[in-house]
Write a structure and sequence with these properties.
The chain is built from 11 helices and 7 strands. The protein is an alpha/beta fold. It has 2 domains: about 40 residues, no CATH class; about 220 residues, Vaccinia Virus protein VP39 (Rossmann fold, 3-Layer(aba) Sandwich), CATH 3.40.50.150.
Length: about 280
C-alpha cells in the first residue's frame, strides 16, 4: 500500500496509470468499429438496436409525455419490433435499390421506435418529417398510420427532402398513406395550409435551419401538436423554440446496443396537459 501511494506521488507514473484507467473504458469501441467495418455497408445514418434498459427508459419517457400507461407504450414498441411485414419490406427494398450498397438489409429502428409510438397513441391526421434519407423513419411512421387506419383513424405522412433519390423505402402499401415532397424543406413547409399533429425535424442539421423550420410551422400547430427533433443531442434549437413559445421540452438519450456510435436521441416539445384535477 505504501509503495502504491509512493508511486502515485511520482507525476509521470501517475499520469500513465490514469491514462491507462481512462482508455480501458473506451478501448472496446475499436472492436465494435472493426466488427461494423467488416459486417455493415452503411456509411451514413448508421442503424443499431438500443440496449434493453434504454428501451425501458424510452417507454417511460413516452408514457410521461403522452400521459399513457407504461404497459400500453411497451406493447406499441413491441408491435413495431415484431412487424415481420415491415422488416421483410425493408430488406427487400434495400436489396433491390441501387443505393442498397450503402445500407444494411436488417431493419434496426432504435429511437425511431419512439416516433412509431407517438403515431399509434396520438392517432394524428398529419405527420410531417423533414429529411428522409433512405426512408427508414418514413416507412416505420407509415406502418403506424396503416395500423391506425385499420382501427378507423385515417392519417397521412409527408416527408420532405432535397435529394430526389431519397425515400426509396417508401413504396408498396406504405405509400398508400405517405409521400415525399422533393425540394427545400422550408419551401415545402410554407406551402402546407393544414394543421400538423406530429412534426419531426431530421433535415439540414444546422441550428439556424432547424429553428427556421419550427418558426415556419408555428401557425400550423395546435395545443395537442408534438414536435420531435432528431438533432437535439447537438442542437438546442427545439429547446429554444419551446422556451420561447411556452412549450415543455424533454430529451431522451439513446444508448446503442453493441455499436460504436455513441447514440443520438429524441428532443420532444409539447404543451402541458390542460386537464384539471378534482
Amino acid at each position: 500500500m505504501r509503495i502504491k501511494s509512493f508511486l502515485k506521488r511520482i507525476w509521470f507514473l501517475n499520469f500513465l496509470r490514469r491514462i491507462y484507467y481512462a482508455t480501458k473504458l473506451y478501448n472496446y469501441r475499436y472492436r465494435q468499429i472493426l466488427h461494423w467495418g467488416l459486417h455493415s455497408r452503411e456509411d451514413t445514418n448508421v442503424t443499431y438496436d438500443l440496449t434493453p434498459n434504454n428501451m425501458r427508459y424510452l417507454a417511460c419517457t413516452l408514457a410521461v409525455v403522452l400521459e399513457m400507461d407504461y404497459p400500453t407504450v411497451w406493447r406499441y414498441l413491441e408491435e413495431a419490433q415484431n412487424d415481420r411485414d415491415l422488416r421483410d419490406h425493408v430488406a427487400e427494398q434495400v436489396k433491390k435499390s441501387e443505393l442498397g450498397i450503402f445500407a444494411d438489409a436488417e431493419a434496426k429502428f432504435a429511437r425511431r421506435l419512439g416516433w412509431y409510438v407517438f403515431v399509434r397513441v396520438m392517432k394524428p391526421k398529419l405527420v410531417v418529417e423533414t429529411g428522409v434519407d433512405k426512408g427508414l423513419g418514413a416507412v416505420l411512421l407509415c406502418a403506424a398510420l396503416l395500423r391506425n387506419r385499420a382501427e378507423g383513424h385515417a392519417g397521412q405522412y409527408y416527408g420532405t427532402d432535397i435529394n430526389p433519390k431519397a425515400g426509396y423505402l417508401l413504396c408498396g402499401k406504405y405509400a398508400e398513406v405517405g409521400a415525399i415532397l422533393y425540394g427545400d424543406s422550408i419551401e415545402s413547409l410554407s406551402n402546407m395550409q393544414v394543421p400538423i399533429d406530429l412534426f419531426i425535424n431530421d433535415s439540414d442539421h444546422s441550428m439556424d435551419y432547424e429553428y427556421r423550420e419550427y418558426r415556419t410551422i408555428q401557425e400550423r400547430l395546435h395545443e395537442r401538436s408534438i414536435i420531435l427533433s432528431d438533432n437535439a443531442e447537438v442542437s438546442p434549437a427545439l429547446l429554444n423554440f419551446s422556451l420561447e413559445t411556452g412549450r415543455q421540452f424533454l430529451f431522451f438519450q439513446e444508448y446503442p446496443d453493441n455499436h460504436w456510435y455513441p447514440g443520438a436521441g429524441i428532443g420532444i416539445s409539447f404543451l402541458r396537459s390542460r386537464r384539471t384535477t378534482g
